[in-house]
Amino acid sequence: MNTVIEARGLGKRYGRRWALADCTLAVPAGRVVGLVGPNGAGKTTLLQLAAGLLAPDSGTISVLGGRPASTPAQIARVGFVAQDAPVYAGLSIAGHLRMGGWLSPGWDSELAARRISRLGLDLRQRAGSLSGGQRAQLALTLATAKRPDLLLLDEPVASLDPLARREFLQDLMETVAEQQVSVVLSSHLISDIERVCDYLIVLVASRVRVAGETEELVATHHRLSGPRRDPRSLPASWDVIEESHAGKQSVLLVRTQAPVLDPAWTVRPVSLEDLVLAYMSRPGDATRARRPGLEVAS
Amino acid sequence: MIRFTWFRFRTQALVAAGVLAALAVVLLVTGIRLADAYDAAVAACKPHGDCASALRHFPSSGYLAAGNGMHLLVIAVPCVLGMFWGAPLAAREFETGTFRLAWTQGSTRTRWLAVKLAVAGTASMAVAGLLSRRTVPAMAVTLAIFAAVVWFAFPAWVRPHLLPPAQATVPLSTGSVDGFEFTSPDQRALFVETAPPDIPGAWILSAQLTTPDGRPVSTVPATGACGPNAPGNSCQAYVLSLHLRQEVTYQPASRYWPLQWYETGIYLALAFALGGLCLWWIRPGRFAGLDVRHRTSPPAPALQSSP
B294: nearest CA in chain A? Predict the structure, then answer.
């Protein structure tokens, strides 16, 4: 697998608190990767480490084969839109585009101008007077017009209303289709991830809980309900993500490559959102070994 | 980065340059008039041969000179520039989060700061902004450090020793005796209040009263000449008859410019050192202590899915 980001034992500390600890992951190239996880999972820290805004306190991270932000060339290859899409409030849109031309070696001024006019923005308008959606679009324009190989977006739509969110993601999709760029997008809105991402990484407490193509993930996970079973009697090839046993019934969420043929089970498909939530609420590796299936009193 | 920094900084830089230019014109005109007036005064007093006393009160009035608030301006302007240019230089970008834009758009952070420091040229004051990462505290720190260093510490402890001061021993003159005071109830010791001797243009650091053989004294034995019933200036005549001296430590007027240059050099060196500290502070490997999370942003909403 060709990777754009590779992290090994990556850690980042703020004072005594580890925002990210011992994180190991690989992000494939040529994909739109959704990075999901609860607050505090380390998504923002991971993206800032990848953008070179932070330096790791432990472990290593390589982005497009190089150390993040080590050289101007490396910076030019990675586009980054930080959370809340910071722009210079006192500077006009035209000023921002000019800044892009001055700072980014591979700046595509035509692309930038085309995007701004497509968005219907006035070049003379100050960035401080833009709406949240427009500001995010401006930040995305700055990041894409430098023609990066990798685009990192940290919660790009978190503060946008549903319409602005859809427009932003639509626009992102078009950009990706045009530019052949790899994208890593963090979000806690699974519906957004579902709309644009073809690869999913669920990060909980610095650990990758599950990673894979979204289609494949949805295809290999099933919700099963049937007569109560002893968890130990389930097929060994099943990875039980979630289980609840209430009264005479067992309800499971399992991952398995093979089709479920046992007629005792009622098999239903799983939505991406259910799948992500199941992985996020699943106890970590260390605790799972000790903990039996969740018992619900009836 | 140079063009962008200038692009953002140009309005305030041009305004400041305009104000400074106007001030320079005022000073130039004043300077020329002062020089003319000085020449006229010297020409007037030469025939009498007593220029020293005539020039003591020069310039009489009507000039924008040291006594007219000019020195306040000279002290305040660098401080104000530091507060409003230097401190926000980095602090504003940290505060608004735009450093994330600048650092990822194409310029390395080292270059980002180096250019900022060079263009604004107020390196020392940016330290405060870099260390606190908040604009208003940075401005306050700028004021505090500037006041402490430039207004107090430097004049009191550093400036007098930039050049070894000159020494002179002069006889105590009538003009240097300010008054007398008995220091003990039995009126046997007399304290002599002295003013520093008059050395034109000199910066007097200290003046110590001594006996003719060089022993430092502050009191002399009292006699009837200084008693309550003695005539008007008999006490002064008595004190002068002791042939006391003043040992003066001072920086002569000729050292004014050397001292200015030394001080400028020291501030420049400090500015470069602090600029270096700033670059060291943000160097890529050493950004660990800096929590670059956007502190003003509201907490993100919990995990949810839109309908």
Answer: A83
**DSSP reduced 3-state for A224:** strand
Q: A157: closest CA among A197, A121, A129?
A: A197
Contact B245, B208 (CB under 8 A): no
- CA dist., res. A188 & res. A46, Å (int): 15
Residue A297 has a pLDDT of: 43
Distances (CA, A) of B283 to A46, A54, B228, B279: 19, 10, 76, 6
Complex ipTM: 0.73
Query: Average pLDDT of B235-249?
Result: 84
The pLDDT assigned to A257 comes to 87
Q: Number of A:B CB contacts under 8 A? A: 129
* Cα–Cα distance for residue pair B78/B65, rounded to 1 Å: 19
Q: CA of A149: how far to CAs of A31, A35, A64, A192, A211, in Å?
A: 11, 18, 8, 22, 22
% of chain A with per-residue pLDDT over 90: 45
The reply to whether A54 touches chain B by the CB within 8 Å rule is yes
Residue B155 tokens, joined? 């004049």
B271: left (phi over 0), alpha (psi -120 to 50) or beta: alpha
Euclidean distance between CA atoms A79 and A107, whole angstroms: 11
pLDDT tens-digit map of B251-294: 888 888 888 888 888 888 887 888 788 888 777 655 543 444 44
- A128 in reach of chain B (CB within 8 A): no
Q: Kind and range of the H or E element at B203?
A: strand B203-210
List chain A domain ranges.
3-205, 216-296
Q: In terms of DSSP bridges, do strands B245-251 and A266-269 run parallel, antiparallel, or are they unpaired?
A: unpaired
The third-level CATH classification (topology) of the domain covering A3-205 is: Rossmann fold (3.40.50)
DSSP B195: -
SS percent in chain A: helix, strand, coil, step 5: 35, 30, 35
Question: What letter represents residue B25's amino acid?
Answer: V
Q: Which residues have CB under 8 Å from B39's CB, separation 6+?
A: none
Q: How far does Cα B100 stand from its chain's mean position? A: 38
Any B CB within 8 A of A69 CB: yes
A90: phi > 0 → left, psi -120 to 50 → alpha, else beta; which? Answer: alpha
User: What predicted TM-score, i.e. pTM, was given to this entire model?
Assistant: 0.73
Predicted confidence (pLDDT) per residue in A204-244, tens digit:
988 899 999 999 999 999 999 999 888 788 888 888 898 88
- Does the beta-carbon distance from A105 to B106 stay under 8 Å? yes
Q: Are B99 and B1 in contact (CB under 8 A)?
A: no
Q: List the beta bridge partners of residue A255.
A: A221, A239
Contact state of A99 with B305 under an 8 Å Cβ cutoff? no
Q: Per residue in A106-130, pLDDT tens? A: 899 999 999 899 888 999 999 999 9
Residue of A nearest to B2 (CA): A102
Helix ranges (H only) for A19-161 are 43-51, 72-77, 93-103, 109-118, 132-144
